[in-house]
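PROTEIN DESIGN WORKSHEET
SECTION A - STRUCTURE
LENGTH: 848
TOKENS:
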């Protein structure tokens, strides 16, 4: 009972788990900062060195090496040892392989290595530099797992292997992920640190610009590199190295020559093929792997007419042609895991090499002094050789002779033994001369060793010289390019910015049709109607825009939402489309009222609002540049007020026309309306008479040629020329727009119309009448117009809309192209008025 110890379970579990964690960290997963090796890698190299398997010796079976490591140093599974050794021999995993493999050691396609009974290996040449001077008391040894043998605690490591080949390891509660680097750059950085101990990690980037992966590729931007080198952690974005080539039949192909580090090539190709099959990647007609022993070559052939950059952006976004490498520079420093920056890693390496050179020098000094001591005895003996030979001949045995030599000539025990063991051939003149030369050389070396140990700078000079020699022997060109940061791939980079026709129906169905598609259908004639709408629905508006244009949707509640044109589903002309409420997250009881298209948000453009009580508000377009999915308040109302109109002011000369229920209207210049903030309510646009309210409004861009259609609740309508309405100041009571009587009813809406358009009137019973604009005569503004829809006591006209028919599509497209042409002309006029070069040419023309 005396052996039982009372202990809380939670304390015991905590201690056991902590012991296990430290064992994993120190003895398995995390490398030592000094030689950059985990225990298994260190033991593999040491065992191979003990077997004499250097780069200039024959290969031996891997099973023999694994057995040696398992039996003597690493009591774990054979697959762990063999797996580590295989990785050390793979040129796509190690920047500088430490094992020279013979046989099938796997591939970048994810193929595993052959069984260890089939493969052979030996140390690579560069591994000699890691083990150099191991027999010169440069490192400490410890007992192996069964105390039967000694194994090294760390290897001498002439090369900064932690950064050279990098490492990856997952311990308990921590992980390390260090990328490989270029040897020449590491040497340059280490030399710079030795010469300037105050150098900063950021300054070291001038010498070590970034990782250098064995598979090449491209590093996108330096931010991740700088973070990793200054903080010990960073995220490096890697991309494949590609080029665009012309293929057959006028097609183009994307050629992938290098892929990001640790990416499986076969899995990458399968991923691309799957995305093509699922139609997430379009524009690809063929995919081939033409890789061979000379390098990687993945051919992605494009369909004719496809833009390579657009397809490439999709490949970067959806496949591992672009990936991230998360750097965590965690290593053991005095058996304690620590995240290090670049300078700290190199400092620890320099400290290690300083100790190695110091211990090696002491070892060489001790060895030289011992030999020098023996040679001193030889010199004395050779000067008295005849007497010494006589003394030995007269001695009864070896011990007596040794004692006599020590007594008579003051030799030490070692000197006396060496003299007794000296061969007679050493007595020749040539041998005596060699002894003297060796003695003088040793005296010089002893002096040199002592000077080295007395002066730290000499140790650093030796370190620098060794690094320079290693660079000359093993340096090669950088494989990974480092480019300036390319912006993160935006979904808009994946969209072809082509012209489309956007339509919206009265019931809120929207769709997008490619203009090129449409024109191809129109060549054979107009054909039959192509708009497939549900009963009582009709196309209310159309917009020609580009895929990357912004669509701003203003609702009857005064909120605004936005989406890109490409977010509207692209369909055929026969398709009904999709409900806009399924695309936009409208609030309850909220309906779209007005749509505006915006190419780019500019502080030179403004949005105009008109409310039911006659308030108008002009707000800079930039106020609506940032709108999230839940929308934003576009205009605040007073209680009982509502939004009647919203429009985009494109020109300073645009005018606003407001119509009221009781037949009054006002036409005003918008330049007298001050622009106010989004949250403001607005100012008085028209001073309403008692019982009156605003029912409609519109923007006028061409007052001399435009006509305004006014429709009443009892189905009367007329067109009037804009010029009949004199302009007034904001806040006026307006002038008569329509002569109302009990027969005509109240005004329900106004629309800007052209003769080749059509309108549709809807009554309270849902009956619809469609008529052409040219059938409605142009009357004076104070007249009552003509009957355009019959009504009775129980029904009234509730709305009038311009109807977009199939024949309108070509006209709308033409108008849009004309508008674009006008924009170009205006731009040229601006340039001409500002550019002295144009002015000079104009003057020359006048003179001529």
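SECTION B - SEQUENCE
RESIDUE ASSIGNMENT:
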């Amino acid at each position: 009972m005396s052996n039982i110890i009372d202990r809380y379970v939670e304390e015991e579990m905590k201690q056991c788990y902590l012991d296990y964690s430290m064992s994993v960290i120190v003895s398995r997963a995390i490398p030592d900062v000094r030689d950059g090796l985990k225990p298994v890698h260190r033991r593999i190299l040491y065992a191979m060195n003990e077997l004499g398997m250097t780069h200039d010796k024959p290969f031996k079976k891997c099973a023999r090496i694994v057995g040696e490591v398992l039996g003597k140093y690493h009591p774990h599974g054979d697959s762990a040892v063999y797996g580590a050794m295989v990785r050390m021999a793979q040129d796509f995993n190690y920047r500088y392989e430490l094992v020279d493999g013979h046989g099938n050691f796997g591939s970048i396609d994810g193929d595993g290595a052959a069984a260890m009974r089939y493969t052979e290996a030996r140390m690579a040449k560069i591994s000699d530099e890691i083990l150099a001077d191991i027999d010169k008391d440069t490192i400490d040894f410890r007992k192996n797992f069964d105390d039967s043998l000694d194994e090294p605690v760390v290897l001498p490591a002439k090369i900064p292997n932690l950064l050279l080949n990098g490492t990856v390891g997952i311990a308990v509660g921590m992980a390390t992920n260090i990328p490989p680097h270029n040897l020449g750059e590491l040497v340059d950085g280490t030399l710079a640190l030795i010469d300037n101990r105050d150098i900063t990690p950021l300054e070291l980037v001038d010498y070590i610009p970034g990782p250098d992966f064995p598979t090449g590729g491209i590093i996108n931007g330096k931010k991740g590199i700088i973070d990793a080198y200054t903080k010990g952690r960073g995220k490096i974005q890697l991309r494949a190295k590609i080029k665009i080539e012309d293929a057959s039949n006028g097609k183009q192909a994307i050629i992938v020559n290098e892929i990001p580090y640790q990416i499986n090539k076969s899995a990458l190709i399968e991923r691309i093929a799957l995305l093509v099959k699922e139609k997430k990647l379009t524009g690809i007609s063929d995919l081939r792997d033409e890789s061979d022993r000379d390098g990687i070559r993945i051919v992605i052939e494009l369909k004719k007419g496809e833009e390579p950059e657009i397809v490439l952006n999709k490949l970067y976004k959806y496949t591992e042609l672009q990936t991230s490498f998360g750097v965590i520079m965690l290593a053991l420093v005095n058996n304690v895991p620590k995240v290090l920056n670049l300078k700290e890693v190199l400092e620890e390496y320099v400290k290690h090499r300083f100790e190695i050179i110091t211990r090696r020098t002491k070892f060489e000094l001790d060895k030289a002094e011992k030999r020098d001591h023996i040679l001193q005895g030889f010199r004395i003996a050779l000067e008295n050789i005849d007497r010494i030979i006589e003394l030995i001949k007269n001695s009864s045995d070896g011990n007596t002779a040794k004692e006599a030599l020590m007594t008579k000539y003051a030799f030490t025990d070692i000197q006396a033994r060496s003299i007794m063991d000296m061969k007679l051939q050493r007595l020749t003149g040539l041998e005596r001369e060699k002894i003297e030369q060796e003695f003088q050389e040793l005296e010089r070396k002893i002096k040199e060793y002592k000077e080295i140990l007395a002066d730290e700078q000499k140790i650093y000079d030796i370190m620098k010289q060794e690094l320079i020699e290693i660079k000359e022997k093993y340096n090669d060109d950088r494989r990974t390019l480092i480019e300036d940061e390319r912006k993160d791939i935006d979904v808009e980079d994946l969209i072809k910015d082509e012209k489309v026709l956007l339509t919206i129906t009265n019931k809120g169905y929207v769709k997008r049709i490619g203009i090129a598609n449409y024109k191809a259908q129109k060549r054979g004639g107009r054909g039959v109607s192509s708009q497939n709408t549900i009963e009582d629905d009709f196309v209310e508006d159309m917009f020609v825009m580009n895929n990357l244009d912004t669509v701003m949707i203003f609702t009857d509640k005064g909120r605004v939402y936005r989406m890109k044109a490409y977010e509207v589903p692209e369909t055929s002309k026969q398709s009904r489309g999709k409900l806009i409420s399924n695309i936009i997250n409208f609030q309850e009881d909220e309906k779209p009222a007005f749509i505006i298209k915006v190419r780019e948000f500019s502080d030179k453009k403004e949005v105009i609002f008109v409310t039911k009580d006659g308030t108008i508000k002009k707000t800079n377009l930039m106020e609506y540049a940032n709108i999230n999915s839940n929308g934003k308040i576009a205009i605040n109302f007073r209680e009982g007020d509502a939004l009647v109109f919203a429009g985009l002011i494109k020109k300073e000369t645009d005018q606003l026309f407001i119509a009221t229920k009781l037949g009054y209207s006002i036409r005003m210049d918008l330049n007298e309306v001050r622009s106010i903030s989004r949250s403001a309510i607005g100012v008085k646009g028209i001073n309403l008479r008692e019982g009156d309210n605003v029912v409609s409004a519109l923007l006028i861009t061409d007052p001399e040629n435009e006509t305004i259609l006014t429709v009443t609740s009892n189905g009367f309508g007329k067109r009037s020329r804009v010029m009949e309405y004199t302009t007034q100041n904001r806040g006026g009571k307006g002038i008569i727009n329509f002569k109302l009587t009990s027969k005509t009813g109240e005004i329900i809406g106004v629309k800007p119309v052209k003769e080749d358009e059509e309108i549709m009137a809807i009554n309270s019973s849902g009956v619809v009448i469609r008529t052409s604009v040219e059938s409605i005569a142009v009357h004076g503004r104070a007249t009552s117009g003509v009957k355009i829809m019959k009504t009775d006591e129980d029904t009234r006209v509730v709305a009038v809309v311009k109807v977009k028919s199939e024949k309108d599509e070509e006209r709308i497209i033409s108008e849009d192209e004309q508008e674009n042409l006008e924009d170009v002309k205006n731009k040229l006029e601006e340039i001409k008025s500002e550019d002295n070069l144009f002015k000079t040419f104009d003057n020359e023309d006048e003179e001529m």
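SECTION C - NOTES
Residues 342-383 form the longest helix (42 residues).
The CA atoms of residues 189 and 204 lie 6 Å apart.
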